[in-house]
Fold:
Amino acid sequence: MIWVGALVQGVLLGGLYALSACGLSLLYGVMGAINLAHGDLAIVAAYLAIIVIPILHLPGILAFVIVVPVFVVLGYVGQRTLIQATLDRGQLTTLLVSFGASIIIQNALLELSSADSHSIDVGSLVTASITVNSDISIAVLSLAIFVVAVVTLIGIELLLSRTTIGRLIRAVADDREAAQLSGTRYRHVFGIAAALAIGTVALAGLAFGMYSSFSPTSGSTRLLFAFEAVVIGGLGSLWGTLAGGIVLGVTQSIGSTIDPSYGVLAGHLVFLLVLAVRPSGIAGARQAA
Amino acid sequence: MAAPLLELHGISKRFGQVVVADDLSLDVQPGDALGIVGPNGAGKTSLFGIVSGDLTPDTGQVRLGGNPITHLDAAARSRLGIGRTYQVPRPFEGMTVFENALIAAQQGGATRGRASHQLAADVLADTGILAEANRPAGQLGLLQRKRLELARALATRPRLLLLDEVAGGLTDPEVAQLVAIVQRARASGAAIIWIEHVVRALVAVVDRLVCLAGGRIIGDGVPSVVLANPAVREVFLGTEATAESFAAAGLVAGAGS
Structure:
């Protein structure tokens, strides 16, 4: 029964990873930008939450009301200025600039805060759980994060498939020049896609900040897990990203059950295995079948 | 007198040592149907790039309806009424045929809601692929891709339609079908500039022919006169296929001999 418990915890943890990965997947899928500051931006969102919560006397769980809109605007403006400027100079420039941004963010956070760990206070929610039986209990916060992840992914999928802006995002992702010939202002569309991606980064950062403690350097691990979820799931597929997140979460959870020090290692090993056997990932393999 | 629809003035463009436009000037009047011929590497497609906004000229100016548009990007030019097809069709492969046309109708064609759906359906019907509306564009064959490429350009409601070798790689009956579509577009008032190696298709539509070589205009006028021009023949007759094509079109007596 302990394995069933580990499996359930792993699936729920996978929701957090998928939420974290979808912004990375979107930015790469739409404009070919690999954002190495992805994890650090998530941590900035968590820091922003612990700043605004006491000022506005907000319950911790409602921090997203302020933080997500701020990040959506940051995503649009950041794309139209910094990211677009780097894209115009080639993919490697985007990689290097986002790496630089990552270092600047980590050091700025260290300077402004300290190396101490923090977490977003969500009151009794952090310990609330649903007991299924003596071996299995489900943390309410983990379940809530999983639901938010699934709803976010469904929302993005619907937006991409059903709306005018979603259609434009798919068009510029497919062929930017042909989209322009059809009259599409691709920079504006890129901006909206980045706003969406960075908005989900904020959600992921808040979820992580509620679920766990964070410090200025926590972003690197967030980035690594997000990358692993994207690669395991297959680039360019949001459902693949969810599947990738769940595979990573379950592997880590089962690894931790065998030995607490094996959790992260087990995740890395599955990631390497997928890279070696199915480099196109779960969704990629399904499309090829 | 009203300004020409399109004016190219002193356009030069080079990629390293390769000159694709050399102090090139050209006017196109509203409703004109202009054909462009020339050997490979003459600068034909680059000229389209300069007009549509994909390429920025090193020097010179592009004007549409008397207004300078050299600094505008391809999206802005599309919205001003310049439609273009690519030599190798570039549909949005993961989207349906209808979605492909709808994007052009909404963005370049500046229509909204029902009007945009109607315009997309109209251009798909006009180009003969309405029956494929719900198919992913990536599944289309060459002729259908060319039809969709045309449909997408027409959905932007162009005043000036740039056609880049729409007849290439097709059979004679298929070419005839595309020529009919282009003739309808012209009849609806759009000016047309058409780059084509299939001269027979070209002369069925155009009333003016420009021959480019080395980024310069070496012939400009009535098609039969331009094709009889010794400089044009010298550029062309090295390629037997083109010579045969001239003869088949009845344009140059004995060109194939």
In short: Chain A touches chain B through 17 residues (CB under 8 Å). Residues 95 and 244 of chain A are 23 Å apart (CA to CA).
